[in-house]
Specification:
- This protein has 229 residues and is mostly beta strands.
- The protein contains four helices and eleven strands; from the N terminus they run E-E-E-E-H-H-E-H-E-H-E-E-E-E-E.
- The chain has one domain.
- Strands 1, 2, 3, 4, 5, 6, 7, 8, 9, 10 and 11 form an eleven-stranded mixed sheet that branches.
- It is globular and about 50 Å long.
- 41% of the residues are buried.
Amino acid sequence: MQRRSFIRAGVLGLAGIGSLAGCSGNSSANPPRQSEVFNQVQVSSGTIEVPLVADPIVESRADVEASLNVGASVLPIVGVASAQKGGGRGAGATGRGTGGYSTAPHGRHGRAIYHGHDDDDDWREDHRDEIETYRASHQRVGLAYLGSDDQYSDDPPEPGPVDWDQTWSDPEEQTVTHENVQQGWYRVGSKLQAEQGSHDFGWEAVDFEVDEDSSGYEIENPWKVSPRL
């Protein structure tokens, strides 16, 4: 494991929660779970900054202690948003479902929801007695460079961990940072554990593209990549 510098998060909005309407996919399949794990990813002075939600929350159908349940009301259903730039081009448009970034459901930080679908709300209504929302903690955070736009388009990873370039165990600070930025696609992921007890919720991730123009680097086409419920 390699630990790098941490910086405190500033006043940032909450993480993009997966609104689950309006993307291609199999409508009969379990939708991606909702969670609140990362605040808005940004690049500042050539450094990627990933603010972590201090008390992450996540949906699950697992049999977890009821005392950890915080209720579904803490995960608001959100419509389309565009807090981060996403022009619907490149891998962002074609690498994650028909229509890509521009037509996928978006959370309030502009993150397209991988595997989201028009009638996910119907599935949720049919299974609402099986879904609970729990408080969790960041057990491990990882960040990896996934390659150029073409490389990512050819083989974008599914939900879960990848071969991380940098990891943090039990991060205590609000923001993790990564230097040596280059153009291309990255994934940041957090392995979530129940805030109390030892239940493992697995990984939540955000894929995003770093692009460079005359004014410096910027984040484009962020995707929220979550396991299915």
